[in-house]
Amino acid sequence: MDPHLLRTFGAVARLASFSAAAAELGYTQSAVSQHIAALESDLGVELLSRRPVAPTEAGARLLDHVGPLLLRLDAARADVVRVARTPVSRLVVGTSGTAFGPRAARALAEVRGRLPRTEVTVRLLDRAAVVPAVAGGDVDLGLVDGAVAPTDPLPLPEATGLSPLGAGEEPLAVLLPPGHPLTGGARLGDLSEALWLDAPAAAVPLDDLRAAVGGGFPSAVRYAGGDARVLHELVRAGHGLALLPASAAGPGALPLTAPRLVHRVEIVRPPSPTPAAALFAELLGAPLGH
After folding, report:
1. Is residue 289 part of a domain?
2. Can you tell me the distance from the alpha carbon of 74 to that of 67, in angstroms, rounded to the nearest whole number?
3. Which residues form the HTH lysR-type domain (predicted)?
């Protein structure tokens, strides 16, 4: 059904007059009559009695639908126009290792909900490459992570104009193979001579563990990827242990009890972030405009 014909029918039925409807809609009376005839022909029923002008039984039933139908069409038109006038923006997030966790995923979903025409890319980078990527404009915003003492900042390289901002901390946990004798909690010092996976993109780097305890942490297998499933399977098969944020380690991992370290994530953003990057940073808990 043509919405123009429906609009004309609604006006005639409401005003009980072809001439009054023509005046309200800016049509000639002849055009209004043609609209009603076309709608009746389309539906194959008489919708209006002419003397007096009033809806027939079928017309009254159609009239019940006309208002909601036209309202939905108007809303659809306004929505299409709004979307067409909203410029497409981009958000490229560069993230190290396990920096992109549940909070970041939820914040990104919120950004897409508020800015639906934002094209989003999440790019995995080496930890050392995140700050240069933001500084060089290769990404709009960076997430970097590491194991530090609670509330301590990450040791990031300095870059003019970039502002690292805390985006959250969570406990760490040691991922162990099935049947490992260790229970309760894990102390890094007690595990420094065990075999570990060298997986800097998927777990806490071994250099961080050595710095915290002082040496040790031998490795026979290096995993250069960032897929958590691969890491879990390597640990499950006995190739080594891994230290992860508790949310990534899963329920079978043992919480780290000593030394007192947490998994910290920081946001690195340029001086003038895009609206999408600024919103993402704000949702992750970073103060805006500082």
Report:
1. no
2. 11
3. 1-56
